[in-house]
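Problem: given the chain below (414 residues), write out its structure.
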Amino acid sequence: MQKQTVAVSARLDQVRYDIRGPLSRRAHELEAEGRQILRLNIGNPGLFGFRVPQHLRDAIAEKLPQSEAYCHQQGLLEAREAIAAQHRRHGADAAAERVFLGNGVSELIGLSLSALLDPGDEVLVPAPDYPLWTAATRLNGGVPVHYQCPPERQHLPDPDEIAALVTPRTKALVVINPNNPTGAVYPREILQALVAIAERHGLVLLCDEIYDSVLYDGARFEPLAPLAFDVPCISYGGLSKVHLACGYRVGWLSVTGAERRIKPLLHALDLLASLRLCSNVPAQWAIRPALEGPNEIGALTQPGGRLHQARAAILRGVAQSEFLRMVTPHAALYAFPSVDPERLPGFDDEAFALSLLEHESIILVPGSSFNIATRNHFRVTMLPQPAVLDTVFAAIERELVRTAEKAGATRRVA
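Solution.
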């Protein structure tokens, strides 16, 4: 008698995380066959020769003997105090008692949505988004409602469009600033308008600010919590990007807003944090030296720094392309080019990404993976050496030429 397969949760039917999805699985198959794959799909500094600052490593090594027991469910007090102090320096009314540490921001996003959502509650999420936000909303019984941040507006949201999407079921508004995947940095005026929407409709602001110090060419990051005042606001940060420590899995959230309004939320977060006991203890010792020590990412993003040069290589590759165009990224670790639909009508980002992987051994992420309706974008990380990115965009151009020839598209003659 044939046994039935295990039935999995129907909640997964609409959950996607293509950054590590089918293309990545195909890349693993090719690697098993002996191919060397250049992985531009994930912002993982350690794979590209970046190293965690030595003073963070030293802090963990020194405190390792004190890391063998569970800590408080919210995290080590000294780490939470350092996080709260950083938020206060930026003007937020933060306190260690309202800070929670997690195994990366990813865990804390799920924990927050679990605390907030009842089945059918809606969450306003940007499009393009970091797809974990859409996935985690669905996994927690919510309904993601996407607001558009198109290239025609420099990938910035329109507050009036957002306000028009609010319904009686809307519970929260997600703000990803600086933005992944577009590299947009939101101006103060837009942030203030988003706070006004949240105040008017009783929404919780969920502020993904993991790239807050990865800025280029004088771009200015405005944290949202100092502008929110009494409006309930959860701000997320961590060590993975700014401090190049993805593998440490250290993230945090800080809750701000009027005490009477956030008290039930704090109790819910504390319950959920207690259920998972605590987050990784050893890496928490790196938080205080990270936040109080030198800003090492700044040297990488300034002119002459490796990330600044890598970004320049991407800009150069797009400018030299017959097919590509792009809004210049001002922050974070990614670029989000698009294919000109007049040059390649009917372009399909997923088919292109698979063909690029098969022909050129390069994996990137199709733009539609970030919950946008158009299918002519892709995301590429800035982490490789600039010279490598020059070769990458030469390979992308070759694949675009192959795509155009296959489609019979009219080529532009130089």
